[in-house]
Amino acid sequence: MSGEEYAELRKFVAPEFVFGAGAAMLAGQYAANLSTKKALVVSCRDLEAIGCTGQIVDSLTREGVTCTVFTDVTPNPRHEEVMAGAEVYRREGCDSIVAVGGGSPMDCAKAIGIVCTNDRHVLEFEGVDNVERPGPPLICIPTTAGTAADISQFCIINDTNRKVKIAIVSKTMVPDVALIDPRLTLTMGPQLTAHTGLDALTHAVEAFTSNASSAITDLNAMEAMRLIRLHLRNAVERPDDLEARTGMMLASTYAGLAFSNAILGAVHAMAHSLGGLLDLPHGLCNAILLDHVIAYNYDSEPEKYRRLGIALGADIPEEASREEAKERTLEAVRTLKRSVGVTNSLCELGMTEEDLPLLARNALSDACMLTNPKQPTADELIQIFKASC
Ligand SMILES: [Fe+2]
């Protein structure tokens, strides 16, 4: 890559984070450093049931922090859940938030924070840089390796009135501290591991080919892809393999640093549209769409797609034609998907022909579409949805 290609001004935002086995147990210490007296712990029922949330509450309590636990959060967190959480935060007199979970509790926690400090409805923050005041101190403790909401500027909330997912993108959405502990991912089942891991892969691929990418985001995206190729299958097949879990958590963090700053592309715009209208799982939607969107985008950034194909294990000789390089890149992505058991189609998940015009329209107006390397028409998106069926 020439220096000239990277000459444009780019900023890079990241929170303070602690990475490694045992990081989650620093929750109490970090909350105390942030002068927390009473924390709203935002989590989900499954994590509470297996004792994961309780461990964090214990760490907080040991440092003299009183906790109120809020677990009324579903996958694809809804605007009503955010407003209910904000009500609990105010009623209980909390002064900080600790999020424990995957993307849903973390996004819900971020949204609760800005609702409370700005005293506005969560749906009023939609878009880029629409948050006036940052939320209260926020510590994020991820329990999946994929979303990277713990380090990103993104917060995605389901507007259930309009059946669309809104994106709130702002530097104020970056948590104060992320405690990234691979041990917390050991309890994820194979399917969740595969779906969240392929979400991380999609973050890396979309950040790498985004029209807002930079030298620094490229470096992070590349390393994320290399690690996912190396560790995802092992993490799926051997859930208690801490080396694979650590590799995937590191990959998720690198991919998060990349996409938080380079933003995403058509895969996420389309997955948000599916999540809003049909309430489908985010990681799985991305995984199904990924190779179809790469096939559509390929010619706009052939050199970058060739490089990412190689990072994912494709054998692409120097003299390979563009068409050959494209096929080998697509095959590398499909092989990775198959190796972790993702063989579904969107129609199997419930998407129908009648949904397509609205899905395409909502995807076109998603903030992530702006940084896709190529601007599709509604008809082209409908063709990609159909190819994924
Ligand atoms: Fe994602």
Helix count equals 14
Instruction: Kindly state the percentage of residues in helix.
Output: 40-55%
Number of separate strands: 9
Q: Identify the overall geometry.
A: globular
Oligomer: single chain
Measured on Cα atoms, how large is the radius of gyration?
A: 20 Å
> In percent, how much strand structure appears in the residues?
5-15%
- Reading side by side through the largest sheet, how are the strands ordered? 1-9-6-4-2-3
- Mean pLDDT, to the nearest integer, reads 96
**Cα separation of the termini:** 37 Å
| Structure class | alpha/beta
The low-pLDDT segments are none
Sketch the major β-sheet. Answer: 6 strands, parallel
User: SSE string, helix = H, strand = E?
Assistant: EHEHHEHEHEEEEEHHHHHHHHH
Bound molecules: fe (ii) ion
Provide an overview of this structure.
There is one protein chain. This protein has helices at 27-33, 45-49, 52-62, 79-91, 103-118, 190-209, 215-237, 242-262, 266-278, 282-297, 302-311, 322-339, 356-364, 378-387; strands at 16-19, 38-42, 66-70, 96-101, 127-128, 138-142, 154-159, 164-169, 177-180. It is α/β, with parallel strands linked by helices and 389 residues long. A six-stranded parallel sheet has the order 1-9-6-4-2-3, with helices on both faces. Strands 5-8-7 form a three-stranded mixed sheet. A hairpin with a 4-residue loop joins strand 7 (154-159) and strand 8 (164-169). Helix 6 (190-209) runs antiparallel to helix 7, helix 6 (190-209) runs parallel beside helix 8 and helix 10 runs antiparallel to helix 12. The radius of gyration is 20 Å and the shape is globular. The mean pLDDT is 96. The structure holds fe (ii) ion. The site of fe (ii) ion has 5 residues, from helix 6 and helix 10.
